[in-house]
Structure formats: C-alpha cells, structure tokens
Write a structure and sequence with these properties.
Length: 647
C-alpha cells in the first residue's frame, strides 16, 4: 500500500488480528490517497483467511486529524475531481467497515477529529487513550460532517450531545467519551493496541457486543422528544448565527436519519456535503483556516532558525480593563505576573478585576476553587519598578497618551534587564514615537490585545524596522501559549486592525450627523453578521479610548478624517460608555444595552459644530433598512465610507 504521500499499511499478527495503520504525517489526515488505500487494505483484510479481526489505528500516536483540508480548494477550483457523493460514508465506512463479517475496532490515540472520528465510529467498537481528543469540527469550515458523522454520533451519544458537539465544534477527551458511550474502553498509550486487539477477538466470539453504530437506537430519544430537541437547536442556531445556513443543514440531515433511518440520512448527508463544499461560506472559512495557521510563519523572522526564549515572568503597567485582562490571560497559562499601578486604590481595583475574571470561570464550572487560588497566586501587585529587575517581558497598558508612554519606556529601560522585551498594548500610536527617547530600539514591540483581553483570540504583534527578530519569535511563542492567534504587522498609526476599522467608524459618525439613526445603523450591522454595531462597540471599548484613537488619526491623516465632535461632547457630559452605564446606550445592572433618546441633543450639537445638515437621502435609506438586502448595502457603505444613494 505504498504511496508518495499518505497511505495505510496492514500487519497481521499471530493472533489473527490485522492492524491497519493510517500514515500521513503530521496528523495522519485522510487525503484521497489514504482513503483509497484504506478501502483497499480493509477489503484485503476481509478477504484473507488468516485474518480473524481488524484494528484500525494511526501512526505515531495520532489516529487521524480528519480529511485533508487542502483538497477542498483543489475540488473547488476543479484541479482535482471529487469522488462521487457517498464514496467514503457509504462505499467505504458503511458498506465495507460497518457491514463487515469480521469485527473492526478503532484504537484511538492523540486525536480523532472530523473524518478521523467518523472512521472510528464506523468500527464495531472504539478503544481510546484517556487524553485523546474526539470531535467533529467540520462546521468551522462551512460544511457538515460528510463521512457518516451526522448519523453515527447521535446514535452513540444521543441527539442532544451530538448536536452540542457538532454545532460548537468542541471535542471531548477519551475519559468523557467513555462516559458518553462514544468509546467502549479507555487504555493507556502503551496498552492501547493490546486492549484493542483483545476487544476485537472478544467481539468475534461474542464476549463483547457487535455493534453497528448506524443502526444503534438505544441512545436515540423518542421521535417526539427528538423533534423538540431539533426545534430548539434550530431556534438557538438562528439566534446565534442568523446568516449561516450550514448549521441548519446539519440539523436537517440529523433529523432525516432519525425520521427515515440511517441509510436515508447518509444519502442526505452526502448530497448536502457536496453542495456546501461549493458554497462561498465554505470557501471563505477554508481560506481563513489556512490564513490563521499561516500567521506564525513570518518571512525574515521565523525562517532564521531562532528558538523562542523561556519567558517566565511578565510585568504589566496599568490595571485597567486591558491591563487586568492581559494579566488574566497570562496567569491562566501559568505565567508569573507583576501588575503595577500608580497608587494603591488603582492597584486594588486592577487586582479585583483579575479576581472577577477568574471567578466568572468558577461560576461557569470552568475552574475549581483550588485552581482559582493557585492561578491567582501567580499575580503580584506593586507600586514601583523594583520588582521589574528580573522580568522577561513588560507590557505597557496605560491610557493612549504619547508623553506618558514615552516616560514609561524611559523608566523601563533603566529598571528592566537587558534581555527584557519592551512591549506596548497601544492600539494606534506609532511605536517609533513611543520609543523615540530610549536607546533599546531593538527591544520595542507592539502587543495589541483586544477587549476583553482574556477572551478575544486576536493578538496584533507590531514590529518596527528596528525590532529584533528574536523579540518577535518570543512574542509569537507567548501568544501561542496563552491561546491567542498572533498576527505580525508593520508599524504605522493604527497598525492593521484600526486602519481597517478607521473608515468604518468615520462613516458611521458621518451618517448620523446627516440624519441616519444610531440604533438602526447598529441593527443593520448586526443583521449583516457583525457581533455588534459601531456605536455599541464604542460603548464597549470606552469613549476615552475612542477619542484617543480618533485623535491619532486626525493628527496623522487630516485630509482623510471626518472631524465629528459627537463622542467628545458626550464624554464631556460624563458619558464614558458601558463602564459609566451611559454612552450611546444606557445600561442596567446586567449590562443590557437600551436605546437612550437623550443622545439626540448631542447629535444636534455635533451637527452645529461641524456645519452638517440632515440629508433626506440618508434618512430614506435608514428608514428602509429592513427592506430586502438594505442592511447589506448600509453595512457596505459604512465599511468603505462611500456615499449612500437611494436604491
């Protein structure tokens, strides 16, 4: 079964058990080479008289990471021909493996994700290591499980749990999988194959049940209960992702199998998978998948052979929302953190924010009280720089004030050791300006987190012309360890994210001053698919940050800036956004946002200052935002700052 790429091998032991091994480094992905080889080796094992039972496993401690995602693009651009619908789910897994006259057992170590888990579920039993990851994350790619997972998983763990695993794309570990019924036994890595071999032989002599997953019914809820569960899942999905169709398709396919039987469900799954594979959503999410993984490869940096240094202790200046969030992210990943503030009142407030972040995890059942205490013990609060003498990295997270940041970096150069990374969490200010008064230009780097910093996955790493490649490699490693997606960008006002965001917010303010309604704009943007509209977002990040960021753009791009006074006027009147419970919205005790009719007076005052007048065209578009596709037109105009005209 040799191949220049992926393949499977077969080895028959003296006990009559054939071990079929999937080999396709690094995660044993199911390329077409592997799938054709798997079919051939399975048929070979079934045809051999010296084979009594079969165990399928993966090479080097990994069962399979799933289908080879790189093949999607090749199918979409027609450079390769996709097999006929149902080739894997029906022709191989259902009709060869599941229907076999000899027992198949999957020996799962490392990971069995997507198609990997679907291969395992087609077997008559599964033995897993305790920490193996098992899941169906296909919805993250704009498709549904296409190798039989929509039919097998509900029958093994029940419809409710299967929906949760598929719709959230979250895997379970081997121990939980055993409790759910997804696997039949757990064994250590050293005992995995031995246990799986014996299990297969026990099935053969009827000491263990011979179960075809597709026809198992004891875990399926009654038809009435199943329909209620599916109805609820549809409602939740429409609420959470109103613009995505493939999660609803997944639910429909599951229902088809429940109502009409697994075979009908497998056919519907195959047809739906083929259709979704050609969708724009799938193409975009596959692109995102590879783009996200490409962020750790930086030409001229990561190809120099540099190894990340061991960062143990990190200091953070500023215990506000960003500083406390960054501190939370770091201690959750076992970094020692020193949090510095200017006085004890601010310091205690910062520490309290970190505690609150951790307590939220405890309340949600994501952290034990013992783990809470251990994690919090990694945090130390200080009021001076004496503890900075042995830190490996400093992240400045104070307000967006150039002179303040310059003074801080001058102090850091004096107190921090020569190897220490000097990072700023600035969202907008040119790093050359921040560090212009210090000598250590090679150590300056941007570490721009996004609020809330312990939750949001993006980390914008900003490098200047003088930033050492070693600093970038180190920060990339830290970003990965604290479970962020680090993206390295060049240095300029606004960097990458806020340069994209700049015309979006500018156009929003321009439209409001010309008659568009704040809340209709936010609703239109939310309908378009964004988590929230621009004005709700300004409330979330805070008016202080919005004004400081806008000021940098006004200073550096005067010819491209619309100088609205709306936010400064509101801020002057003690509206700071969500933190003050008043911004563009008013907030109750549960932070629920409600429209505030009082903002009209600020809009009118801003119009007077800018000399803007209400444009009937803008008002007309705003009033018709709920007409067909109008929310998309408004969103497009807001994003690119172009003129809105009547349709």
């Amino acid at each position: 079964m040799s191949s220049s790429t992926g393949r499977t091998t077969i080895d028959v032991g003296a006990d009559g058990v054939a071990i079929i091994t999937i080999i396709n480094p690094p995660v044993n992905s199911l390329s077409f080479d592997v799938l054709y080889s798997l079919k051939e080796t399975c048929e070979q094992a079934l045809g051999r008289d010296d084979v009594k039972a079969i165990v399928i496993t993966g090479a080097k401690g990994k069962f399979s990471g799933g289908f080879d995602i790189s093949a999607f693009g090749k199918i979409q651009n027609k450079t390769i021909q996709a097999p006929k619908p149902g080739f894997v789910s029906l022709d191989i897994l259902s009709d060869v493996v599941a229907s076999a006259k000899k027992p198949f057992v999957a020996a799962v170590d490392g990971l069995a994700l997507g198609g990997g888990l679907e291969v395992a579920m087609a077997c008559h039993a599964r033995v897993s290591t305790p920490n193996a990851q098992l899941g169906l994350p296909e919805l993250q790619l704009g498709i549904i499980p296409g190798f039989g997972g929509t039919q097998a998983l509900p029958r093994l763990v029940g419809i409710a749990k299967a929906l949760e695993m598929m719709l959230t794309s979250k895997p379970v570990k081997g121990e939980e999988a055993l409790n759910l019924g997804l696997v039949d036994a757990v064994a250590s890595p050293n005992e995995l194959l031995t246990t799986a071999r014996q299990w297969a032989l026990d099935i053969l002599v009827l000491k263990r049940p011979w179960v075809i997953s597709y026809y198992k019914t004891d875990k399926l809820e009654s038809l009435g209960e199943a329909r209620e569960i599916l109805k609820f899942a549809r409602a939740q999905t429409r609420k959470r992702a109103p613009n995505l169709m493939h999660p609803l398709v997944c639910i429909d396919v599951i229902e088809e199998g429940v109502v009409s039987g697994a075979r009908a469900g497998l056919w519907k799954e195959a047809e739906a998978f083929q259709s979704l594979l050609e969708s724009d959503t799938c193409k975009s999410l596959v692109h995102f998948f590879f783009a996200q993984r490409g962020t750790t490869k930086v030409p001229g940096v990561t190809d120099l052979g540099l190894k990340p240094r061991n960062i143990k202790k990190v200091a953070i200046l500023g215990g506000g929302l960003m500083g406390s969030g960054i501190a939370t992210a770091l201690i959750l990943s076992n970094y020692q953190v020193i949090l510095k503030e200017v006085n004890d009142k601010f310091l205690q407030a910062g520490i309290s924010r970190v505690k609150a972040n951790l307590q939220s995890r405890v309340k949600k059942g994501q952290m034990s009280l013992e783990k809470f205490e251990k994690t919090l013990s990694l945090l130390k609060g200080v009021l001076d720089y004496e503890s900075f003498r042995d830190v490996d990295m400093v992240i400045e997270a104070v307000i967006e004030n150039v002179s303040l940041k310059q003074q801080i970096f001058s102090d850091l150069e004096k107190f921090c050791p020569p190897h220490c990374i000097l990072a700023s969490n600035t969202s907008t200010i040119d790093l050359n300006l921040i560090g212009e008064k210090i000598k250590s230009q090679d150590r300056i780097i941007g570490a721009h987190f996004f609020s809330p910093a312990h939750v949001m996955p993006l980390l914008e790493i900003v490098r200047t012309q003088k930033t050492s490649p070693q600093m970038i490699v180190d920060l990339l490693d830290v970003g990965k360890k604290i479970k962020k997606t680090p993206v390295v960008v060049g240095n300029c006002t606004g960097f990458a994210v806020n340069r994209v965001f700049f015309p979006y917010t500018q156009a929003s303010l321009l439209l409001v001053e010309r008659g568009a309604d704040v809340y209709k704009i936010d609703r239109a943007i939310s309908k378009f698919g964004m988590p929230m509209g621009p004005f709700r977002l300004i409330d979330l990040v805070g008016f202080g940050v919005a004004i400081a960021t806008g000021g940098q753009f006004v200073l550096n791009f005067p010819e491209r800036t619309y100088k609205s006074m709306l936010v400064p006027l509101m801020h002057k009147d003690n509206r700071a956004g969500e933190t003050s419970r008043k911004g563009f919205y008013v907030y109750d005790d549960k932070r629920k946002a409600n429209p505030d009719p009082e903002i009209k007076k600020y809009i009118e005052k801003a119009r007077e200052i800018s000399g803007a007048t209400v444009d009937p065209k803008v008002t007309l578009i705003s009033l018709h935002e709920f007409s067909r596709d109008s929310h998309k037109r408004i969103s497009f105009c807001l994003m690119y700052g172009i003129e809105i005209t009547p349709s």
